[in-house]
Amino acid sequence: MNVRFTLRLNMMNTLTGFLAGEETEPIWKSVPAFVRAVNDLQELLDEIVAAGEAQNGRVGPAADRKRALQLLGDEAHVIASAIHACAVDAGNEALATRMDLSRSDVTKGSNTSVVARCRDILNAATENAETLKDYDVASADINSLKKRVDAFDGVKSKPREKIATSSAATKRLPKFFRQANAVLTRRLDKLAVKLSASHPKFYEEYRAARNIVGNGRSASKGARVIPAPTTTPVSEAA
Q1: Tens of pLDDT, residues 43-83
Q2: CA dist., res. 149 & res. 68, Å (int)
Q3: Is the pTM higher than 0.90?
Q4: Domain locations in the chain?
């Protein structure tokens, strides 16, 4: 991946890092549309990384499986932990025991075992979806886990079609960046405005992180600035 694309990727990772913060994540996770947009952006960033690896000749079935397993393990562990806490509160010891999994427990064993274990977590999450909302697990989180399970299941036995050559990867990178930028400007930026009144500090910090990303340009080259929300004074509104 060339320097320009690497810079743009790093800037986008700055934003996702901000959104993943302990104080910031609970704010937007209460908005399902925001969760979907963040998940879509992360998937595009994963595609960008994969294309960058293809440019350097490092992508292949083993790397594909490893990446899918990492993503699946992270999400499955978080949801299993929430189900465990939920089951303990409900006095469901059988479910609590099944979901008492460490991060390494989730991905240990054969690929087939991993898929079966994660589908069990997914099924338990689906069955308890309404109750799990109180444990910061939204329907978008469950849908995302399903995608991760399906993705890993698809590569565990046979690799999915890959970006086979460096030239093909180079052609796809601009498309991935355009799609990622569309998620930022047409979805996340708009959704963040809705949170500006209830969480002004979050919105100011979001703006700061976004203005680093801009439209893939540095601030010195005229990156797009996310404006503060406009408000109408009470006297005028009356």
Answers
A1: 888 888 878 777 665 545 556 778 888 889 999 999 999 99
A2: 9
A3: no
A4: 1-34+172-230, 60-161
